[in-house]
């Protein structure tokens, strides 16, 4: 029976010898260190991930700029072709206008001349 009581006392930490303040401080320090290192490791991992995304975005931006450069060159060439075609198509009208304005010196007379059947 006495052995049983001794065993119960050693199993029950509240009745056994209490920890000293040094042990409590050491426990607190280890727990604080573990949590702090966990946060630091998470920040480092997030920083590495952000750097990888940044490189990906820069590559994508460069590719988009190259595509835009090609599209702008194509748009400029298309616009120049359209302007040339428009000028060639309108050239007879310009020459007609010049002929009409040489016959009619003012705009109202030109209007009347065009409207006349």
Q: What attributes does this structure have?
A:
3 helices, mainly alpha, 117 residues, rod-shaped, 87% helix
Sequence-ordered SSE layout with sheet pairings:
Layout: H1 2-11, H2 21-103, H3 107-115
Q: Would you kindly provide a written description of the structure presented here, covering whatever features stand out?
A:
With 117 residues, the chain is mainly α. The chain is 87% helix and 0% strand. The protein has 3 helices and no strands. The chain is rod-shaped and about 130 Å long. The protein starts with a helix and ends with a helix. The mean pLDDT is 78.
Radius of gyration: 45 Å
Order of helices and strands: HHH
Characterize the overall form: rod-shaped
Question: pLDDT under 50 segments (min length 5)?
Answer: none
Q: What amount of the residues lies in strands? A: under 5%
Average per-residue pLDDT, rounded, comes to 78
The largest sheet is: none
Structural category is mainly alpha
Helix residue percentage: over 70%
Cα distance spanning the termini: 136 Å
Number of helices: 3
What is the count of β-strands? 0
Question: Gist?
Answer:
The chain has helices at residues 2-11, 21-103, 107-115. It is mainly alpha-helical and 117 residues long.
């Amino acid at each position: 029976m006495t052995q049983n009581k001794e065993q119960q006392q050693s199993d029950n930490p509240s009745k056994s010898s209490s920890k000293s303040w040094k042990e409590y401080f050491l426990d607190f320090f280890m727990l604080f260190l573990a949590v702090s290192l966990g946060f630091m490791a998470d920040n480092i991992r997030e920083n590495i991930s952000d750097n990888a995304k940044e490189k990906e975005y820069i590559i994508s931006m460069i590719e988009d700029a190259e595509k835009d450069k090609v599209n702008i060159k194509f748009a400029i060439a298309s616009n120049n072709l359209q302007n040339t075609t428009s000028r060639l198509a309108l050239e007879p009208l310009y020459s007609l206008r010049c002929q009409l304005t040489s016959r009619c010196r003012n705009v109202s007379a030109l209007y009347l001349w065009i409207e006349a059947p």
